[in-house]
Amino acid sequence: MSKPYVIGMDMGGTNTVFGIVDARGHVIASDSIKTMKHSKFEDYVEDLHDAVIRLLKANDAEDKIKGIGIGAPNANYYTGEIVNAANLPWGDIVPLAESISKAFDGIPVGVTNDANAAALGEMTYGAAKGMKDFIMITLGTGVGSGVVVNGQVVYGHDGNAGELGHLIVKRTNGRVCGCGRTGCLEAYCSATGVARTAREFLEIRTDPSDLRNLQIEDITSKDVYDAAMSGDKLAKEIFDFTGKILGEAMADMVTFSSPQAFILFGGLTKSGDLLLKPLKEAFEKSLMPVFRGKIKILVSELKESDAAVLGASALGWEAKYHYQDTVKPADVPLVTEG
Amino acid sequence: MSKPYVIGMDMGGTNTVFGIVDARGHVIASDSIKTMKHSKFEDYVEDLHDAVIRLLKANDAEDKIKGIGIGAPNANYYTGEIVNAANLPWGDIVPLAESISKAFDGIPVGVTNDANAAALGEMTYGAAKGMKDFIMITLGTGVGSGVVVNGQVVYGHDGNAGELGHLIVKRTNGRVCGCGRTGCLEAYCSATGVARTAREFLEIRTDPSDLRNLQIEDITSKDVYDAAMSGDKLAKEIFDFTGKILGEAMADMVTFSSPQAFILFGGLTKSGDLLLKPLKEAFEKSLMPVFRGKIKILVSELKESDAAVLGASALGWEAKYHYQDTVKPADVPLVTEG
After folding, report:
1. Which of A3, A36, A71, B298 has its CA 20 to 30 A from that of A44?
2. Is-contact B109 B322, C-beta < 8 A?
3. Are B232 and B269 in contact (CB under 8 A)?
């Protein structure tokens, strides 16, 4: 009998959310544990395992899980490892797929980074349902991306494809980026980027703004949003600036894969037309003529809490990796590959 | 009995070269006709048909052709049409696949643009043999590209993917490009772009150069190459400038698909290290750290005359489109789909 559920896990720096998901994309039940409180990865895996088992027992689903899909920062689809994740405390290389599969007696596990997981979620259950060519852009603390071509997530030869937040949008005097270079899209169009723009604008310019009532170093993208919504001109211009850069960069992305649509996701999309209007204008204007008027820009319709779990869960259905104890194969009864 | 050959056709603005190709990538025989002398597309197709039939007869291959693959400027893989090709005289939309298949009694025909055909050729017979993720860059009069992901050419949702010659490399005061915008890679790193750089350098600067002995408006990339090879400093700097822009743009392309390699092809690659040295330096320096030292930059090893025909022929093996006369199906005996 084929198993009716998968588990989707969204591992963030603060929380790890997980849920039992059925084939139609319903989250049957979900729960979470704290990620950061575990200074040792082994303790984290043990806690996560116990919490998942509790959830499975409570929902009578212990023997019904086909696989586990995990979205995690810098997780590599091919190796199953987390590599150099800045906001996780467990060292440079974390054997994520291996450890989770082992903890769950060899169940198949698939991992990828959070933006790719989001793209899978949109394709399977969300705004990109039925699309074979689209680009997912996540606008959060950073700018992430998941590229789908011919119905497949593009992982590249080493699992590191889809780093469009690190396209260079400013070649000279660009802002320093977390990746060690300067001028990356992420340094301008993430939530953090919006806050940096606010600080730059306030320092360089002299026109009045409600934002001047705040401690300049504490300003967040939310502050800029609130000010813009109450009509603050400078705050609106910050969104114009952000949207223009993102729209121009997205027009460049089109020359690569000619997608049917972009799906935008993450905190910054809550700014709505403040961001989307200048973004769409710059996008259309910057496109090669052959692409104009043809490419949709959509905002994810998935609930933010569900989207990450759903996206990761999509990976669970086709997960291939499973831990095998080569010394005592008889101890690995739950292998359910295929 | 399965048919042992395909026909590959490379349609250029001046000549159309075609060849009979076997499954191992040997060009059994080839010939060409003039493209431009036909002001009517129907006449061109008729001439091409007659010339191909002559070649088939001469090689006893009339009943041995599985399909025809065609690389042509702006040819669309999905529609089989040539759309808005600037250097062809037959109007905005040319029904290429349909007309050729009809002329050859319904034989399956596959078409794509020349850069995608080159990518297929490299993957099937050339430097990218065995690679599943690479990017082909053609450096000729323009800059073309063919992107291969998971072993498949990326066509995008409408067949227009892979226009990386039109990535914007200069956002302000960029050069006018043939696509109607400004600042495109092609305006800098094509053979024409090199000549434009030469003219700009000679006008702006005052240092001596052999290039000053030439009529400034007639300077070609070949002139710049010759001067650089005889030690001309300014000519060398023109290649440094070109290589740096191309290397930086290629580093941006990597964030998209994390390719195993770039394959460079076309006239400008003959400049060798004059171009490749500054290109590779800028490329490595501009890459995100996670990609450094991992991505090959290769120059095509296929003979230029063969490469285009071979690339197009690769499309012939899997060509699906074939003309069917719905009024008189009995007149279409050569349908060999599958």
Report:
1. A3
2. yes
3. no
Contacts with A259 from chain B: Cβ below 8 Å: 156-157
Beta bridge partners of A144: A138
Distances (CA, A) of B334 to B3, B67, B104, B168, B207: 12, 10, 8, 46, 65
In chain B, which residue's Cα lies nearest the Cα of A296? Answer: B157
User: Residue B43: its pLDDT value, please?
Assistant: 96
pLDDT at position A94, please? 95
Q: What is the pTM of this model?
A: 0.91
How close A277 gets to chain B, by Cα (Å)? 20
ipTM: 0.91
Minimal Cα–Cα distance from B185 to chain A, Å?
Answer: 11
Query: Are A166 and A179 contacting, i.e. CB atoms less than 8 angstroms apart?
Result: yes
Q: Where are the beta strands (DSSP E) in B140-279?
A: 143-149, 152-153, 261-265
Question: Which tens digits make up the pLDDT trace of A255-275?
Answer: 999 999 999 999 999 999 999
How far A78 CA lies from chain B's nearest CA (Å)? 13
Cβ A98 vs Cβ A44: under 8 Å: no
Judged by CB atoms closer than 8 Å, whether chains meet at A160 and B289 is answered as no
Which one of B131, B179, B248 has the shortest CB-CB distance to A289?
B179
A→B interface, C-beta within 8 Å: 83-84, 131-133, 147, 149-150, 152, 154-164, 166-168, 171, 179-181, 248, 251-253, 255-260, 286, 288-291, 294
Note whether B125 and B302 are within 8 A (CB).
Answer: yes
User: Which residues on A lie below 8 Å from B155 (Cβ)?
Assistant: 258
Residues whose CB is less than 8 angstroms from the CB of residue B49 and which lie 6 or more positions away in sequence, other chains included:
B100, B103, B104
CA–CA separation, B299 and A229 (whole Å): 54
Q: Do A155 and B258 touch (CB under 8 A)?
A: yes
Provide the shortest C-alpha distance from residue B9 to chain A (in Å): 25
CA atoms within 13 Å, Cβ hemisphere of A176: 2
Query: How far apart, in whole angstroms, are the C-alpha atoms of residue B189 and residue A195?
Result: 36
DSSP characters for A51-71?
HHHHHHHHTT-TT-EEEEEEE
Q: Do A152 and B157 touch (CB under 8 A)?
A: no
pLDDT digits (tens, 9 = 90+) for B300-314: 988 776 778 998 999
In DSSP notation, A119-173 reads HHHHHHHSTTTT-SSEEEEEESSSEEEEEEETTEE---TTS----GGGSBS-SSS
B41-58 and B96-103 are packed helices; what angle lies between their axes, rounded to 10 degrees? 50
> What integer pLDDT is reported at residue A2 of this predicted model?
84
Burial class, A263, CB count within 10 angstroms (exposed 0-12 / middle 13-18 / buried 19+): buried
The distance of B146 to chain A (nearest Cα, Å) reads 9
- Optimal mutation site among A143, A149, A298, interface B, most CBs of chain B within 10 A: A149
Buried b (16+ CB within 10 A) or exposed e, B127-157: bbeebebbbbbbbbbbbbbbbbbbeebbbbb
Distance CA B145, CA B265 (A): 10
Sorted by sequence, the CB contacts under 8 Å of residue A61 that are 6+ apart come out as A5, A20, A28, A55
Q: Residue A246: list chain B partners with CB under 8 A.
A: none
CA A69 remoteness from chain centre: 14
Q: At B282, is the secondary structure helix, strand, or coil?
A: helix
